[in-house]
């Protein structure tokens, strides 16, 4: 979006861009949704993206067999839905093509290869100052859209560096084809761990999956209807704990007792657990039947990695050729947003959903609700309305000037 005005500022001897509208950090689904909603309100914005493409998590860091787990109506961004001919659960490729069509429809042109390294609010001038590797950008509004899954979590496991084989995080896993006939340990049993283990089975590898804790596994569908959809519908009428009880009753009926497979259920129900801790239930797309028939072996926590394998907490020791860390992701906000107490040390807003989208001094967040793309859509709409309202007020006060927010920036 052509909202940049270049000028020499002498700050760190770098060029400084004063941005007329909000600056959005991140061109994932959340950043794109925010830009689209702002554009619909007539507000220009600038997206800074560290990668060289939109939706880089989906394009660069996900495995080939990935499909949305939720039906498409729960994963749509605001203002433009999925094409009618897409299946109920779009593939990764279809989701990426939807993102590309979305960006093109709203004429969103992020500035790529711009890693925001440091951002601070400048009290004196009332602007956010964002430093990338080669430029400084300034705006009255900062929209954080760097995602809950910005960086892989790499656990510190004793012996990690002794291992002779390959260790990789799921963000670098594409397909099981390179692991054919290998004994592979998948550490972690979230949706990534389950699906990667399943993919390894399909490619004739011998996967073992570490389950160190309790986990809720739910069928993706119950009698042909998405489990998520059923939960959403029931929550409109019933208390959360009752909905959880219902989901577990049906899940046990469809899947059987998962405890016996080494997948013990937490005491707290799946939706309550998600709301309280952010821990996502696993939606089963086939891994469970592979566990039942012994093709995916469930292992206890890892005690230590050795030269050729792993020692487990229960005393077992096994050899592996590769280890895949399906240990999840974390926010990277604390690494680049400084002097701002809106976020926890883990880079999540301190204020929970539905009020996590707005901070002070023109700070906003989109996509930090632990509610996936549904949360993104809700944040983006609210942010755009809020900023558009502010601009109307500013313009009202500065009737003689058509570009009133430029004046505010020039106070510095
Ligand atoms: C394997 C996998 C499958 C998933 N499947 C689903 C699903 O089916 N449904 C669902 O709702 N959710 C799913 N999710 C959750 C997923 O995080 C969201 O769908 C979605 O990608 C979130 O969008 P986002 O824009 O908030 O974050 P991201 O997609 O992570 O985008 C953030 C962007 O910010 C950029 N960025 C980060 N730091 C900086 C910086 N310092 N400077 C500049 N740019 C920066 C990144 O490069 C990235 O492009 C999945 C996640 C994973 C890992
Ligand atoms: N198709 C899809 O829609 C799809 C597919 C994949 C992922 N996703 C989404 O992407 C997000 C990330 O999912 P994810 O599965 O990558 O991460 P995740 O849900 O955070 O799961 C991480 C897993 O790793 C385990 N773990 C972490 N550190 C460990 C250690 N040191 N030793 C053993 N186990 C360890 C965790 O166990 P503890 O519980 O004990 O911490 C947990 O089982 C989620 O929102 C998920 O729903 C969606």
Could you walk me through the main structural features you see in this protein, from its secondary elements to its overall organization?
The strands form 7 sheets. Strands 1-2-7-6-5 form a 5-stranded mixed β-sheet, with no helix packed on it. A 5-stranded parallel β-sheet has the order 10-21-11-12-17, with helices on one face. It has a 4-stranded parallel β-sheet with strand order 4-3-8-23, with helices on one face. It is built from 11 helices and 23 strands. The chain has 2 domains: 16-150 and 331-411, FAD/NAD(P)-binding domain (3-Layer(bba) Sandwich), CATH 3.50.50.60; 155-325, FAD/NAD(P)-binding domain (3-Layer(bba) Sandwich). The chain has helices at residues 29-40, 56-60, 92-105, 191-202, 227-235, 240-255, 270-277, 287-292, 333-336, 372-397, 404-410; strands spanning 4-8, 15-19, 23-25, 46-48, 118-122, 127-131, 135-139, 142-144, 151-152, 166-169, 183-187, 206-210, 217-219, 221-222, 225-226, 282-284, 297-299, 302-305, 309-312, 317-319, 322-325, 329-330, 363-365. It starts with a strand and ends with a helix. It has 412 residues and is of the alpha/beta class. It is globular and about 75 Å long. Helix 1 runs parallel beside helix 10 (372-397) and helix 5 (227-235) runs antiparallel to helix 6 (240-255).
